Amino acid sequence: MTRRGDTIAYAVSGIAILAFVVLLAFALARLIETENEMRRNEGDNMLWAISQAQTAVLMLDTALARHASGLGEPGDIERRYNVLLSRLTLLSEGPQARYMDALGHAQPLADHRRKVEGLEDGILAPARNEAEEAGAIHAVLAGLASDLGRAANQSMVTHWERTGARLDRQRAAIIQVIISILAIIALGAFLCLTLLRAMAQKQRIQRSLTQEQEVREAYRSFVALVSHQFRTPLAVIDSSMQRLLRQGGVLSGDDLQERARRVRDEVQGLTRLVDTTLDTVRLDGGSIQTNPRACDVRTLAERVIASQTEATPGRRITLSIGEEVPPRLWTDPLLAEQVLANLLSNAVKYSPDNETVFLRVRAESNRILFAVEDRGVGIPEEEQGRLFSRFFRATSAKGTRGAGIGLSVCLQLAQTLGGHLAFESRSGLGSTFTLALPVSE
Fold this sequence. Notes:
Elements: H1 2-39, H2 42-68, H3 76-91, H4 94-103, H5 106-118, H6 120-124, H7 131-247, H8 253-285, E1 293-296, H9 297-311, E2 317-321, E3 328-331, H10 333-349, E4 357-364, E5 367-373, H11 406-416, E6 420-426, E7 430-438
Helix pairs in contact: 1-7, 2-3, 2-7, 5-7, 7-8, 8-11, 9-10, 10-11
Enzyme class: transferase
Transmembrane segments: 12-32, 172-196
Catalytic activity: ATP + protein L-histidine = ADP + protein N-phospho-L-histidine
């Protein structure tokens, strides 16, 4: 199922990338086409050429009229005539000739050009008294000017129509490019989301694999550790019971009490181990429910100390409560007592019998802090980062019974209560574990 999902994801991503490339190429082609079309100004050039030719006709006709009235300048008519011929030649060759032909004015323009060239002698050497020849020249020039005017008007109309069509095409191209860009953005967002999902899924799989490996290794260690922890007290209990069976009639009362005490201690150790293991299972399954209520701070602390004193009668445990501590807090007293009892038990277990264990209570930022302090073996600095890991035991704890799950359970219970568990420790000098609980809900 995973391989099929990966195949589908790769196929969809490939199609999206292909569509991305196609849309980008299409948008680029449309932009290039629009840019090239914007460069085309053929209509503007032709309108200018026709208008210049028409102006040349009118200027030549005016020069002839001035010469007839005796006001003309020497050489002016020849210059105007040559300009007119150059304008007509421009309109009769190359793309200009094709454009004039498209307008339907190529043939009339050629006829007018032949007529103008045929009147060259009369134009360049006009006689003042030959009114008939002057009238003929004027008629030819007037007809040429009229045709050029119509050609200019038609060129303008055609240019406007082409400009309108070009603008419509450019507008359509711009809309297409905008749509393509939006599609590219959408595809890019889709690809990003796909990649992010793939990366997140890969990370989840990697985390799951790592977690599975850690859990497998942890439970392997747990099984070995619990097997050892169960085997040792059971061996002590079995040995004591065997001796009682063999020598029960001759043992003194003190020996019987010592045997009974040892059996009871081992049974209590097994009970704590089983309870802690069950707590771990319940925490993993999310089946631990809290029942918060108003609790007396001093009563909670004294009850935990009394329980530990009963288990280890010879140990000194000192309680101190700051004046700033409010008398009550809102929490689940059973779970809070379980955390403090575990911390106090560890402090007693990992410190010398002649050292006092302290339980200090103080208030800070709407929280009540229960600090359990000992002068015991401490925790090596390089191992402190793994202290709350399940089934982990510090090297300084060797020789002392334990399963390595008590502190992990304490941390989870503290978080369940809305609090936090922290510690400070120096190897060989002791440790301080602090349970911080909120004063109110």
